[in-house]
Specification:
The complex is a heterodimer. Helices cover 74% and strands 0% of the residues of chain A. Chain A is mainly alpha-helical. The termini of chain A are far apart. Chain B is mainly α. Chain B is elongated. Chain B starts with 15 loop residues before the first helix and ends in a 9-residue tail after the last helix. Classes of the chains: A mainly alpha, B mainly alpha.
């Protein structure tokens, strides 16, 4: 998703940014910021937190560009930094919320009324998928998002998460099915809630 | 992992849970095949699975819809300005001109180091004996140290051998002083001290320090050089290269072939004797 740069161009930009070129550093940020933001939104469920993590990840990556090993992709390194920042964020939030990967700290999905008010199908679907993703364990969520959103290969994810490829595959399978189930359940619950509200409104109108 | 085609068992109605699990497995396999780039194979798998159980199609549709939502593109706000400003405060960016200056300075530094090294090499080539560099000086010093320690080791052995000799001499009667024989043709005993011997028969010489290829410093010393107490000049030994310092000193010698053959020597000695024997008067020609 964020593989906008070819390997050669990416390395050239990294070299120039490490030498102190502001434009090259800016080009790197622009190339990867949206992909990283999308990943972090899926991980945190909160756009504001995602934006903070993205910003901090870029600052750390560009400040320590001399340490970057050019054998690897810049995106892998950047996503690793972002993932660590996100885990730190979860760790900080732990006393307040449950450890289930910050799922409690995620912004609560808007209720059916607010969705109806918005009248925006895409926004409601986005909220639904975010809520469904937050119901997954952290590892499964990361694997599903990296595979299906960022188009990473299984071996890349295995390297990134330091897990065997077989484990990644089985997490991916379970994650997909759990995600489907969570989304179906969420939709059913919302439909039932909307039905109850409609019935209550009808009753109010009659009385 | 069991394939969808293996379960449920044929001829037996599957429970709803088992049916759903099988459909989910099949859908996962189809998605994996599609992700691996085998679209045709994935389509074939889906067709086969759906022919057996239409629930697979429903699961597949729901999964695709879910994953489509996961893939939905998202664009956050542009954070590049904030990021670059923060980076600039800790690790300032440089203008193009300044970057060129830094590169030029690095180039000049590298060139000067290279030129310095080349000068040293050229000087050493022109005057190999002169110790111009610190590396050469250090090497020379270490070599001198090694030679000095070898000499002191040899002198210590000399002293030890002298003391042993002195102790034996005081207890045993002193042998008669060697009679220095006059130089005679074929008599090589006066020169044997400087003769280079070759090794053939095993013979032990107590106190001989063999200097052969050994560990560390001694590896570079000439093979077969030995210093024997009582003999001023070194003797060249030919022996096994495994002789090391500290081992029991052992050397094997074979006397060099005499300048004249034994028969010649006998004839010469007879001639000498004949000359020294007083001739009876009247025996001359």
């Amino acid at each position: 998703m964020c593989a906008a740069l070819s390997r050669g161009l990416e390395q050239k930009l990294i070299r120039e940014a490490a030498a102190g070129d502001r434009d090259a550093a800016g080009a790197l940020v622009k190339a990867y910021q949206h992909g990283l933001f999308a990943y972090m939104v899926r991980m945190t469920g909160r756009p504001d937190v995602a934006e903070d993590v993205v910003q901090e990840a870029f600052v750390r990556a560009l400040t320590n560009l001399d340490r970057f090993d050019t054998r690897f992709r810049f995106s892998t390194w950047l996503f690793t930094i972002a993932r660590r920042l996100y885990l730190n964020y979860c760790e900080r939030r732990k006393p307040v919320s449950d450890s289930s990967a910050c799922q409690q700290s995620a912004q609560p999905a808007p209720g059916p009324a607010s969705i109806a008010e918005q009248g925006d199908t895409t926004a409601s679907q986005r909220d639904e998928i975010n809520s469904a993703l937050q119901s997954l364990p952290s590892v499964q969520r990361q694997i599903v998002v990296l595979f299906h959103q960022q188009d990473w290969a299984i071996w890349q994810i295995a390297e990134h998460l330091d897990l065997p490829e077989g484990t990644v595959k089985s997490h991916l399978h379970r994650g997909r099915l759990k995600l489907r189930l969570a989304l179906t359940t969420l939709r059913e619950e919302r439909a039932a809630e909307a039905e109850r509200r409609r019935a209550a409104m009808k009753q109010e109108a009659w009385s | 992992m069991t394939s969808f085609h293996d379960s449920p068992a044929r001829g037996r109605p599957a429970s709803p849970d088992a049916r759903l699990a099988a459909a989910e497995r099949a859908a996962n396999e189809v998605l994996d095949a599609r992700a691996a780039g085998a679209s045709l194979a994935a389509r074939e798998m889906l067709r086969n699975a759906a022919a057996k159980d239409p629930l697979v199609l429903e699961v597949m549709r729901e999964l695709e819809e879910t994953l489509h939502l996961v893939r939905e593109p998202m664009r956050g706000t542009d954070v590049s300005r904030e990021v670059l400003d923060r980076v600039h405060s800790t690790r300032p960016f440089l203008a193009k001109r300044a970057r060129r200056k830094v590169s030029a300075a690095r180039l000049v530094l590298a060139c000067s180091v290279l030129a310095g090294l080349s000068t040293i090499v050229v000087l050493q080539r022109l005057e190999p004996g002169a110790s111009t560099g610190p590396v050469t000086a250090a090497l020379d010093a270490s070599r001198d140290d090694a030679v000095h320690s070898l000499r002191s080791l040899a002198s210590a052995f000399d002293r030890l051998a002298d003391s042993v000799e002195h102790a034996t001499a005081s207890s045993a009667p002193s042998p008669a002083p060697p009679v220095r024989r006059s130089l005679a043709l074929g008599d090589t005993t006066r020169y044997e001290g400087a003769v280079v011997h070759e090794v053939s028969t095993p013979h032990e010489y107590p106190g001989v320090r063999p200097f052969g290829p050994g560990p560390g410093l001694f590896r570079e010393l000439p093979s077969g050089l030995a210093i024997m107490p009582g003999i001023a000049q070194p003797v060249v030994l030919v022996g096994p290269p495994s002789l090391l310092l500290g081992q029991r000193p052992t050397a094997m010698f074979r006397p060099a072939p005499p300048l004249l053959s034994a028969a010649d020597l006998r004839l010469l000695e007879q001639d000498d004797e004949r000359k020294q024997t007083p001739q009876p008067p009247g025996s001359g020609r």
